[in-house]
Amino acid sequence: MQAYELRAESRTKLGKGASRRLRRSGRIPGTVYGASKEPQSISLSHDEVLHQLDHEAFYSSVLTLNVDAQSEQVVVKDLQRHPYKPDILHIDFQRIDEKQKITMRVPLHFLNEQQCVGVKSGGGVISRIMTELEISCLPRDLPEYIDVDLANVNLGESVHLSDIVLPEGVEIYALLSGGDASASVATVSLPKGILEEEEEEEEEMEEGLEEMEPEATEQTEDE
């Protein structure tokens, strides 16, 4: 697992005006909280953060945050982006305690899509219902991503939350709070156009049978 490290400085000037001036200087405001410590306001280099965000694992890894020469272990908990510019407006970090579980969203990696039975033999297409999963685990067990194997999924079938093979020590947060284990993560179905054609053919057949039924009844009564 790659190690990620960020440099930050504490900040005392708060408020919207101070944040705007900070952004104009090439830095972004942020906050560090958790681990039974007081929240701390910080600033970071915008370009340094933006560069790290190119790495998918950055979002789901334990990071080293150096604030005024003091090092802390943190995870990214919230990130605010500009609605249409490639700018980061604010970032929140949560301190971690190695003995306490954390709740994080990690990406799902779908494996064997081309080898999927429902695609290869059934002519189906894969629909990804979820692209990430909220999990609970100790910091040392935090995975960069979770694999979802689609190799043996047949046409018309789905992969459910209960089907996901989790790394040791990792639990699905939704299921800990009474969530639905049968919720779909991905499905394999016929392409929309083909499915619509089949539905139309079925409707036409049903209409044809309905039209034939009265005639058959009349013949029986005549006899």
Question: How would you portray this structure in words?
Answer:
By secondary structure, the chain is α+β, with helices and mostly antiparallel strands. It folds into two domains: about 5-95, Ribosomal Protein L25, Chain P, CATH 2.40.240.10; about 100-195, RNA Polymerase Alpha Subunit, Chain A, domain 2. Helices cover about 25% and strands about 40% of the residues. The protein is built from five helices and 13 strands. The strands form three sheets. It has a six-stranded mixed beta barrel with strand order 1-3-2-6-5-4. It has a four-stranded mixed sheet with strand order 10-7-9-12. The chain has a three-stranded antiparallel sheet with strand order 8-13-11, with no helix packed on it. Strand 5 and strand 6 (about 90-95) form a beta hairpin. The longest helix has about 30 residues, at about 190-220. It is elongated, with a radius of gyration of 27 Å.
Write the element-wise H/E pattern from the N-terminal end onward.
Answer: EHEEHEEEEHEEEEEHEH
User: What is the helix content?
Assistant: 10-25%
Domain count: 2
Number of strands: 13
What is the tally of helical segments? 5
The amount of beta strand, in percent, is 35-45%
Look at the structure and give the mean pLDDT: 87
CATH class of the largest domain: Mainly Beta
| Major beta sheet, strand line-up | 1-3-2-6-5-4
Kindly report how far apart the N and C termini lie.
Answer: 83 Å
Derived from helix and strand composition plus strand pairing, the structural class reads alpha+beta
Largest sheet, described in full?
6 strands, mixed, barrel
pLDDT < 50 runs, ≥5 residues? none
Give the name of the CATH architecture of the largest domain: Beta Complex
